[in-house]
Amino acid sequence: MTRAAPRIGVRLPQYGASWEELREAAVRCEELGFAGLWLNDHLQAPGRRKDEPTFDALTGLAALAPLTSRARLGVAVLSASYRPPALAAKMATVLDVISGGRVTLGLGSGSDRPEHRAYGIPFASPPERVEAARTTLRTMRAMFDAPEGATLDGVLENAPNLPPPVQQGGPPIWLAAHRPRLLRLAGEEADGIVAAFVGPEEVGRRLARADEAREAAGRPPLDCALYTYALPISSDEEVAGWLAPETEALGTTPAKLVRWLRTTGIVGSPAEVRDALAAHAAAGVTDAILVLPNRVPIEAFEALAEALLTEGSR
Fold first, then answer.
1. How many other C-beta atoms are found inside a 10 Å radius of the C-beta of residue 97?
2. pTM here?
3. What is the dihedral of CA 16, 25, 288, 231, to 10 degrees?
4. What are the backbone dihedrals phi and psi of residue 80, each rounded to the nearest 5 degrees, phi first?
5. What are the residues whose beta carbons fall under 8 Å from the beta carbon of 1, sequence distance 6 or more?
6. Between the CA of residue 271 and those of 165, 227, 260, 275, 308, what are the distances in Å?
7. Residue pLDDT, tens place only, 201-222
8. Comparing C-alpha atoms, which of 165, 145, 167 is closest to residue 156?
9. DSSP state letter for 255
10. In the 8-state DSSP scheme, what is residue 313?
11. How far apart are CA 195 and CA 289, in angstroms?
């Protein structure tokens, strides 16, 4: 069976950018036809640079919501360890209201150990973090489903969540999952999974594991989001110009950065990028969240849109 092309979203430039640059990128990316505008749930920039401006996901998207009207607004992915579950649910609900029902929530167990340490957030054991993700997912479900007053044993006691979410049942929740326990939880209770920086075969394996639990629970099909770097290269000179500000900040060269991106993302001619995403779609990917390196100009997003956006992917 031929699968539809995935919906194409982009991670906005939330690191090393000014508010004006982030705002303008969001507005332009919606104009270009991207289906989703995504931010990471980080308090500091992940990777090699920490000393640069960082816009967090929930307040950043709340500010962008009134400036956009069509594209979905997504968090890739909300860390269950950063907020009490009820606070996460309330903030997600308010964001859904502000945006007119355009929110998608990626949810994860939290994996950035240095960030936890920097901000004084306890970094629990893997089983404890999985349980925190489960509790957050169930708390969100309870508060989305019963906005007049939600009760969840040991967590909520007739807790109101008003105004209620705009979307029926609340924003979709996609679980960032790669190990059996979280994949099973995704199938049993979430609306989809997020797979980061992996190829089609691994995406298919994870989705199949989650689908086993979903089918056993008698639930509807899951969405499957691929989160990955993507860089369409029409000419080496053009790409070198796009990457120059980032490589200067990192103390490297555009050629070295492109070589590294090839090891973890989708890099090539526009046709090669399209073919790679088609292979992921054949493995079950319904949504692609594409990441360009930090500090690239808006022209790079325009080239990505030109390479990928057809009527079937908007």
1. 17
2. 0.96
3. -70
4. -65, -15
5. none
6. 40, 19, 20, 6, 9
7. 999 999 999 999 999 999 999 9
8. 145
9. H
10. G
11. 10
